[in-house]
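CORE FACILITY INTAKE
Project code: CF-77B
Contact: R.S. (postdoc)
Sample description: multi-component assembly, two entities in total
Requested service: structural model of the whole complex
Turnaround: standard
Below are the sequence entries exactly as provided by the requester. Do not edit them.
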Amino acid sequence: MAAAATCGTGAGSTASMASEASKSNVTSFQRRGPRASGTDSGGTRLVSIAGTRPSVRNGQLLVSTGLPALDQLLGGGLAVGTVLLIEEDKYNIYSPLLFKYFLAEGIISGHTLLIASAKEDPADILQELPAPLLDDNCKKELDKDVYNHKTPESNVKMKIAWRYQLSPKMEQIGPVSPSRFGHYYDASKRIPQELIEASKWHGFFLPEKISSPLKVEPCSLTHGYLKLLQFIQNIIYEEGFDGSNPQKKQKNILRIGIQNLGSPLWGDDVCCTETCDNSHSLTKFLYLLRGLLRTSLSACIITMPTHLIQNKAIIARVTNLSDTVVGLESFIGSERETNPLYKDYHGLIHIRQIPRLNNLICDESDVKDLAFKLKRKLFTIERLHLPPDLSDTVSRSSKQDLAESAKRLGPGCGMMAGGKKHLDF
Amino acid sequence: MVKGIMNAPPLSPGGGGQWALTPSGGARGETGHKSEMLDSLLGLGGLMLLRDSVEWEGRSLLKALIKKCALSGGQVHILGCEVSEEEFREGFDSDINNRLVYRDFFRDPLNWSKTGEALPGGPLGALTAMCKRTDPGPVTIAVDSLSWLLLHLPCTTLCQTLHALSRQDSCPGDSFPVGQVRVLGLLHEELHSPGPVGALSSLAQTEVTLGGTMGQASAHILCRRPRQRPTHQTQWFCILPDFSLDLQEGPPVESQAHPDPHTPPVDPMTHLTFNLHLSKKEREARDNLTLPFQFSSEKQQALLRPGLGQATSHIFYEPDAYDDLDQEDPDDDLDI
């Protein structure tokens, strides 16, 4: 009975709807309004800032690191409000490249940059950024004038079904547009000057900011770090990245790049001695920086010469205080340069830590042995394929190499792989 | 930006990476070599670190480099902290001595005698004063020893001052090319822990580590050009009394793998209970044996030609596990 009643009411409601529909002479199925542009998934409530996208896993807002391969390894990109720490390679050749890719991505996406360095002038760093890589056919498109109608040459390239030939052409999103996430860069070319001039950036060059070395009391920040923190805080506050300036219509991301943090040029002697006076200066700086970043729309990349840090406990603390840690190990000067296993690559890349942001588990990929190669134009990260361990055919020397490379495998491989001697069973 | 490995000087073959100078023969080659090592060392500019030890001292190489810089023009400033001025100037002839600007911090480092000629601020003050120079032209600053400075100054201050010195050439508005300021620093590696040495070597554009074997000195040179791969090379040399450099070939490389001729190799097959040797006939028989799975022409013929007892082809069927071969015919119980 009750069911019949509901059916009746249901029928009544559909009848009323049908009558309404018949009144307006259209179907009762209405299409939803078009989604806001710039968001691929997730709700329309997310802030759509150029160059960002929400993570498919937890909805966190991500920015690209400039290297799509690295983005993929980090789970889609770098989360806004976090720190990416790059442990420099021994001769500091490849880590500045990652630094520059991050900044170049910021320029292309229209983000504001903040570059801090004690070694090079930020203006010089900006001049050396890599140029974005254009696809060949898109380059031709950008060179030619825009045609509104279909030209006959399109018939040569692609046979389109007759029905669709007359449909209006889809608008071409250029490869260098800020709405695309993750661009490719040409490491052999410099970024065009007009892109630099169109971008907004702030520079912090330590020798200019500090006139004379001051005496600092222990357990506090080194003078250089203090100045840098104040500078970052001022920029975040003045430009409204932390929401303190509600008149700002268009939200933007601040990309902070700090080069060679912890080196003696910053006034920090963590690289010089094992027990230094200001041993907590670096860790305190990272802690305060992370606090600043979490309350603002910014992302930070830091390169640190961890191979110079004498006290290994500090490296562990620094890793804990950063969110994402990527280590670079180049083969130059080591015996691996001549090792046939590594002849195609220039170094190994270790993803040491990935943050757990609003999550219980982090997005660690199961690929532990990754190697990078700097070709003339591109920086590629590939999976290192170790040769199969056939105990009958493999000779003794390469077995030793396998043991060495097996040491590089992650902790998931068990402790047997950590020894020097290759165990035979 | 990786521009490729720096090409080795064209006189000797090189593949990049490590190589020892091979003799190219001829006196022309020798004189060509002489200037090249110093040229390549001094051409880079920036900070050059000379790492020496007790066995292989570096002051003579430092003096050879100073002599080369003084002869090629440009000013040479010397910060002498470890040895006295007379001892340092010994061996240089007078026109070189006149070009050297020597600041002595050996006799009175803390300025206790309060004479007017001492510079304020000690050696650090002298270095920072050199940062603010305004006269153009190449300048070489030789620090007699960075070890002395490291023991008296904090490492970070020294690093920052050296960096400011080598940055002098990239000031905006000046047209100085890179390489106008050279800082030659002598560092005694054994006095320091790896921390300060690592910090200084990360700042240096060129690093020369002195070593050697059996009376022959060698220099291991590491050049770090900005944004290029670093290049290593090892060079054997000897410094003449007038502080010019004489390049040499390495010591004769003795083969280290001499087999020990005292004990003759033992033949392990002498005391066996079975015979491992083959006689000639046995060897021939072994060679003539055809292995069962070897495809020879006889086998091919045997397969192609059907055998005597086989008129038709045979099908050899082995039932699978899934094959249901029921011996009973299900149609048996039908009464047809």
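Facility notes:
- Chain A touches chain B through 32 residues (CB under 8 Å).
- Residues 2-24 of chain A form the longest helix (23 residues).
Invoice: internal transfer
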